[in-house]
Design brief:
13 helices; two-stranded parallel ribbon; 285 residues; single chain
Length: 285
């Protein structure tokens, strides 16, 4: 049987695909553009069209599938957007669905991930929720513009600490779960790096790696929201979710360091310093 990987072209999904292939699993990569997926994976996986807003795409995506990696697309801000697909999953005899959730979401009802977790559980689907901390790729991706152009980190996290994790490490852990579905049936896993850093520490690491002086701007929520929407042109719903997450970060929800990654993989998680060195181009013009 096969493993369906949704969001296969994304930060985590692409790593999940690669790790499953290393485990000799049969992988179905799903997304709204199968041609793009074929080009990305070079014909090594089956590629199918899957659109959570179009139930007509569900049947072909789930053919001969017994495990699923489920990712909520960022542009679908309401948990209800995923309910039709989850309802389709409960009609199948699945061994495991691993949902990419959020660290601390079991105590935080604001993000859509909370209700999605509950929907999966209520449907009686065997699950392994993955609750990662903030991705290191958030800094090298969505927040890299200000670092490159202005030598500053523009994130409204105050003095809080975050146990960042590399998306590649998340992919490795997810593959371990999906490869052993009976062992991890109805479990939850918090994935973090080995240390919690505040953004002044992140700025110092980036300064050392880039050879430039990077500072942490410490913007307020409104200042951050205005810049991301008006200047960066990001979707309001997406920005609002990030504001809510950074609000929770200030409450201390992102600083815990969990042992789950080591337990699942037998490895140490990548440090932010090593990540920054490996992705130096993301922070340079």
């Amino acid at each position: 049987m096969k493993i369906l990987v949704t969001g296969a072209s994304g930060n985590v999904g692409s790593y999940v695909v690669e790790e499953l292939l290393r485990l000799s699993e049969q992988v179905v990569a799903a997304g709204t553009d199968p041609q793009k997926l074929n080009a990305k994976f070079g014909g090594r996986v089956e590629c199918v069209r899957l659109d959570f807003t179009d139930s007509r795409t569900f049947e072909s995506a789930l053919t001969q599938v017994d495990r699923v990696f489920l990712v909520r697309p960022p542009h679908l801000g309401k948990p209800e957007d995923l309910y039709p697909f989850i309802d389709a999953l409960k009609t199948r005899r699945l061994l495991l669905v691993s949902f990419l959730s959020l660290m601390g979401v079991e105590k935080n009802t604001i993000p859509p991930h909370h209700k999605i977790e509950k929907r999966i559980e209520a449907a009686g689907i065997p699950y392994a929720h993955v609750r990662p901390g903030f991705f290191m790729q958030n800094i090298s991706g969505i927040h890299a513009a200000e670092i490159k152009e202005e030598n500053r980190i523009f994130i409204p996290a105050g003095k809080s600490k975050t146990s960042f994790i590399d998306a590649a490490d998340i992919g490795l852990a997810v593959a371990a779960l999906l490869h052993a579905p009976e062992q991890y049936r109805n479990t939850t896993h918090t994935l973090t790096g080995a240390e919690a850093l505040d953004y002044d520490q992140v700025a110092r690491i980036l300064s050392e790696v880039t050879g430039r002086t990077i500072t942490y701007a410490k913007p307020g929520y409104l200042q951050y929201r205005s810049r991301m929407i008006k200047r960066r042109g990001l979707d309001k719903a997406y920005v609002n979710v990030t504001v809510a997450l950074y609000f929770m970060t200030r409450m201390g929800t992102a600083k815990a360091v969990a042992p789950d990654f080591r337990r699942l993989t037998g490895r140490e998680p990548r440090s932010f310093y090593d990540f920054a060195k490996a992705h130096l181009a993301c922070f340079s013009d």
